[in-house]
Amino acid sequence: MGNNFARFLPFSQSAKAGGAEGTREAPAPQFEVGAALEEVEPDVYLKRDTAMTPSILLTGKQFLTLQRHLPARVQSRRWRLLFCSGLHGFSRVALQNSCTKELRRARGKERPAILIISAGSEGNILLGAYVSCIPQASNKRYVGTEESFLFCVPPPSSSSSSSSSYSSSSDGELCIFTAPENAANHYFMRCDNGSIAVGGGGKGPAIFLHDDLATVSCSTFCPTFGLKESLLLLNARSNGYCDAAAAAGCPSDVRLEGGEPAASVRSIQLWTVGDEYFVAS
Question: Where does the TLDc domain lie (predicted)?
Fold first, then answer.
């Protein structure tokens, strides 16, 4: 798989300057993330007669960042859209049915899941998780492996004059959070009555998508991934590294529910990884 992933790397070309041969870095072509996505099949229930190319809540750069953190065996494979609130609405029944349909289609093949959530009134908060298996209504106990991880783009400040210390990464860099080797538990994912929890213990899940799919909560302490701050309260320093915000207040669009940060969901996408490979042009 390493050879396949090498296609993502910038290439160099030989050049001669002043009679001496050297190398210079050629500009890397911009990656079109659509090339890595499978078409969505026609759906009679949704009254869609033709296949369509889906959109994704990630930029090409963010998509490639996730690729580098996926297990090698699933890198460079096309992603398949299982559920999208823009197509299916905020229906937990549609979410569960889509997952069940994909598991039947897979016939025992490995099918990891990538959950992507945009939150806030403008959808400016982006967070999600890679989990080693597709969520099912029957996952009342925690499932998944140490390959699971979290990601987020920290929320932007509401304005330059805000007293809050929260700020967005200038180029939308993803922050990745993997499970530490000495993690206190293996609470990677659980589904219960339509809700999806990723992580657990401490003060609760690192990501908790409520059963109405309208609210996402992120606890301020999740030992599964070694988090000591809520994903909704992280901000990015200018050097690209994430740090817990020092301010006592919440950033715009984040509120406290039961003492833990929560935000309204704007969009939800659930993807899996198919069997076909894509080539980055």
Answer: 56-274
